[in-house]
């Protein structure tokens, strides 16, 4: 069996990926909403998002709403695939169907 994806396996990154995977492909979530859902500090969330972004799993869209900056996040196709592979590996480890 392949090892679990270490990028996703960290608890905080797994939670981030799971929330973003629950969105319909093509949908996105604002940084403050994700922060609120996960109960994470902005700095901690940013650090984990950077790791996911560097791996190509998360897409970050920084825009402006009027004069205020806004950051939106979504799971990339590669991120969605990685999360699906990760959950299949977990099921297999737990004795379920892959």
TrEMBL record:
| Transmembrane region(s) | none
Against Pfam families, the record matches this protein to: HTH_34
What range(s) does the Winged helix DNA-binding domain occupy?
18-94
By its UniProt entry, which InterPro entries does this protein fall under?
ArsR-like_HTH, WH-like_DNA-bd_sf, WH_DNA-bd_dom, WH_DNA-bd_sf
* Top-level taxon in the UniProt lineage: Bacteria
Q: What is the protein's given name?
A: MarR family transcriptional regulator
């Amino acid at each position: 069996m392949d090892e679990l994806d270490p990028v996703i396996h960290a608890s905080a990154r797994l939670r981030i990926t799971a929330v973003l995977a629950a969105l319909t492909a093509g949908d996105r979530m604002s940084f403050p909403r994700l922060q609120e859902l996960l109960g994470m500090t902005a700095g901690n969330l940013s650090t984990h998002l950077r790791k996911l972004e560097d791996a190509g799993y998360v897409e970050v869209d920084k825009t402006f709403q009027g004069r205020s900056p806004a950051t939106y996040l979504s799971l990339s196709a590669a991120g969605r695939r990685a999360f699906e592979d990760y959950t299949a590996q977990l099921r297999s480890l737990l004795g379920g169907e892959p």
